């Protein structure tokens, strides 16, 4: 029996309260009919006895306390899924906005996802080639991994996201298919158009599913956007057996929407006003990445978040770092030098890369090369710090060599064109050419056999730049 409740008890921001409701379920969808015949949707976000709090997706403007009719649907929010979602563009609630009509669903799935049994998870192996040297060599993205990008306001994280979507590939495997799910939260209209136009112009839209939530859309929709995107990704990965890369930008906008929503519910705030459950809420999204035993597909995540005031200890990047398996940090000083992408090497890492690179995956020298580049670039920072104290002319000859290596490393290795797609072999060869600028005895992270094979003392920065 379907009951319809007439009237409301309270309206507060995007929330309405209804008393005398029996047998309601948390996250249950609700249909709301206004006096003028308009229909809106919402979901139950809090239950206190027979009192329920309902989150209205379209906002509460124009809703009356006396004549509004509310009906519980008895089911959670679900997303229509079929193989044809590839190449389509949806809003934050999963409704098509590309003018191609509704999706003819093969099934409906709860956007909150199903818990992934830890026992059924398989360890992430093999890598995803992004065509970006700094990522592919030094912080390799592994299938099934969650590897966030920590950026700052005004930096080129949007361009990097587009480049990764355009260039990302997996190693050639029989029957393996690769696709991308892209979710944008709280973006301005011009940024949304930039993403959409970039994917269309590059011809990659056919393998991309887009979810766009604009800055003038309701904050409730912003909270749903990553859940819809991950639901689509899980369907494509575990039912269509595809390797799916999920890029979500900007997670800081998501967290701020969550903070606003929590405040409207009257919850006690935590650090910087964010709700105390921010960690578990982010984990409920990030932990939907992975691989499941018995399925050939995988879900890999690259969440992008902007750090307010470039503060890496801010709650959003801080908690994200606890949950994810590494991070890619963008540096404002490198960005100021015109280096793109401005990846800050030393605070960046990928904790799973050791198990997805090397012989059989990338190349046998990859791990040793990455370790040596990290160590040598760390020495560059020490030499620069010393030069700032005593002056560069007072440095030792070897410190001068490191200063030269650092400049070449940043301008030739880290820096690459937005349209430049480097293979893993090109990236590794370039790394060896740069290391050959240093004396052989300084390369203490590489064994003699590998040095003999790859070290070429005659190489100079000029020849390295020819790659």
UniProtKB/TrEMBL annotation:
Signal peptide from the UniProt entry: none
ATPase F1/V1/A1 complex alpha/beta subunit nucleotide-binding domain: residues covered: 131-350
Annotated keywords: ATP synthesis, Hydrogen ion transport, Ion transport, Transport
Domain ATPase F1/V1/A1 complex alpha/beta subunit N-terminal: 10-65
Domain ATP synthase A/B type C-terminal: from-to ranges: 355-455
Pfam families: ATP-synt_ab, ATP-synt_ab_N, ATP-synt_VA_C
InterPro entries: ATP-synt_VA_C, ATPase_F1/V1/A1_a/bsu_N, ATPase_F1/V1/A1_a/bsu_nucl-bd, P-loop_NTPase, V-ATPase_su_B/beta
Purpose of the protein: Produces ATP from ADP in the presence of a proton gradient across the membrane. The V-type beta chain is a regulatory subunit.
Stored PANTHER family: V-TYPE PROTON ATPASE SUBUNIT B
Record-stated family: Belongs to the ATPase alpha/beta chains family.
HAMAP family in alphabetical order: ATP_synth_B_arch (MF_00310)
Name of protein: V-type ATP synthase beta chain
Lineage: Bacteria, Bacillati, Bacillota, Clostridia, Eubacteriales
Protein's gene: atpB
């Amino acid at each position: 029996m379907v009951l319809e409740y007439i009237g409301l008890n309270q309206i507060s921001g995007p929330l309405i309260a209804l008393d005398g409701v029996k047998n309601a379920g948390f996250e249950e969808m609700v249909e709301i009919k206004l006096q003028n015949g308009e229909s809106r949707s919402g979901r139950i976000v809090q239950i206190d006895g027979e009192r329920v709090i309902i989150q209205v997706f379209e906002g509460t403007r124009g809703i009356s306390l006396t004549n509004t009719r509310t009906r519980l649907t008895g089911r959670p929010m679900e997303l229509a899924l079929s193989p044809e979602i590839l190449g389509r563009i949806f809003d934050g609630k999963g409704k098509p906005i590309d003018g191609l009509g509704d999706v003819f669903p093969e099934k409906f799935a709860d956007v909150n996802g199903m818990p992934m049994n830890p026992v059924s998870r398989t360890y992430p192996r093999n890598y995803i080639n992004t065509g970006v040297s700094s990522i592919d060599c030094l912080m390799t993205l592994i299938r099934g991994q969650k590897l966030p990008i920590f950026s700052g306001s005004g930096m080129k994280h949007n361009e990097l996201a587009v480049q990764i979507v355009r260039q990302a590939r997996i190693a050639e495997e029989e029957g393996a298919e690769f696709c991308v799910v892209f979710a944008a939260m709280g973006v301005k209209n011009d940024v949304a158009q930039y993403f959409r136009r970039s994917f269309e112009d590059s011809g990659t839209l056919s393998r991309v599913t887009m979810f766009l939530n604009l800055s003038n859309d309701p904050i409730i929709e912003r909270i749903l956007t990553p859940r819809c995107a991950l639901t689509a990704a899980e369907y494509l990965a575990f039912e269509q057996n595809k390797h799916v890369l999920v890029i979500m930008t900007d997670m800081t906008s998501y967290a701020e929407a969550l903070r606003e929503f929590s405040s409207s519910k009257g919850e006690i705030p935590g650090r910087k006003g964010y709700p105390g459950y921010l960690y578990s809420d982010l984990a409920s999204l990030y932990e939907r990445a992975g691989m499941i035993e018995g399925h050939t597909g995988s879900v890999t995540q690259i969440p992008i978040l902007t750090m307010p005031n470039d503060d890496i200890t801010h709650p959003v990047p801080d908690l994200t770092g606890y949950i994810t398996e590494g991070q890619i940090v963008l540096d404002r000083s490198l960005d100021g030098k015109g280096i793109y992408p401005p990846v800050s090497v030393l605070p960046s890492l990928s904790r799973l890369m050791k198990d997805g690179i090397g012989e059989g995956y990338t190349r046998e020298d990859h791990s040793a090369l990455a370790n040596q580049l990290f160590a040598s670039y760390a020495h560059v920072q020490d030499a620069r710090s010393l030069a700032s104290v005593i002056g560069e002319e007072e440095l030792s000859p070897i410190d001068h060599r490191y200063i030269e290596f650092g400049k070449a490393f940043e301008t030739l290795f880290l820096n690459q064109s937005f349209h430049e797609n480097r293979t893993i072999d090109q990236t590794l060869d370039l790394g060896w050419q740069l290391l050959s600028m240093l004396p052989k005895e300084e390369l203490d992270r590489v064994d003699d056999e590998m040095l003999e094979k790859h070290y070429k003392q005659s190489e100079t920065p000029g020849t390295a730049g020819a790659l």
